[in-house]
Amino acid sequence: MKTSLLNTLTDQQIVAQAQQELPHVTVAFEELVSRHEQRVYAICIRYFGNVEQAEEISQETFLKVFQQLKNFRGDAKFSTWLYRISINLCHTAAQKKSSMPNENIDDLSDDIRLSNELECDDEAQCVQYCIEQQAEQEKAMISMRFNTELSLQEIADVLDIKLSATKMRLYRAMESFKSLYEKYCI
């Protein structure tokens, strides 16, 4: 099926086609990537603030989807499943990064001193810095809500939590961001 015809199909229909065709024919899978790659990248870039790492995790996300698409049952929307994979890979990469051996103590004290003296000339740089300072769960909430523009119900589905818990987590993430923003950017 040609790509132009795939544009008229829903994600669910394209997933069904890709499940039948993979791994030998990748046209339907490529359409899924095309539809969702910007949102997956947005999650990753907000999570890490690092283009190289965001690109790496985005690629890893689609590789995992390629490998696991046959197992996708359709209990949730494809996009919900995809974003959950992306967030899980972000968490895993962040945990690996934090478990790496620490730098020497002089470098760490320099970093602390610099972070206390941060003055951003660029608003976007300051916003990214504030997001990077947040806990992993808070980063994920802000990324899903503002970068991928998921609804609160979609975020609840991705995280497999109740809507009320999603609202509270988003509220807490926003309060955390606000206090960091006031500290570093105003």
Q: How would you describe this structure to a colleague?
A:
The chain has 186 residues and is mainly alpha-helical. It has 2 domains: 100 residues, Rna Polymerase Sigma Factor, Chain: A (Orthogonal Bundle); 83 residues, Arc Repressor Mutant, subunit A, CATH 1.10.10. It has 10 helices and no strands. Helix 2 packs across helix 3, helix 4 packs across helix 5 and helix 5 packs across helix 9. About 8% of the residues have low confidence.
Q: What is the radius of gyration?
A: 19 Å
> How many beta-strand elements?
0
What is the N-to-C succession of helices and strands?
HHHHHHHHHH
Which percent band covers the strand fraction? under 5%
The CATH superfamily of the largest domain is RNA polymerase sigma factor, region 2, helix turn helix motif
CATH C-level of the largest domain: Mainly Alpha
The total domain count is 2
CATH topology of the largest domain: Rna Polymerase Sigma Factor, Chain: A
For the sheet with most strands, the description reads: none
Uncertain residue ranges: 103-117
Structural class by secondary-structure content? mainly alpha
Helix content: over 70%
CATH architectural label of the largest domain: Orthogonal Bundle
Q: What is the terminal-to-terminal distance? A: 54 Å
The total count of helices amounts to 10
Instruction: Characterize the overall form.
Output: globular
Mean pLDDT across every amino acid position: 85
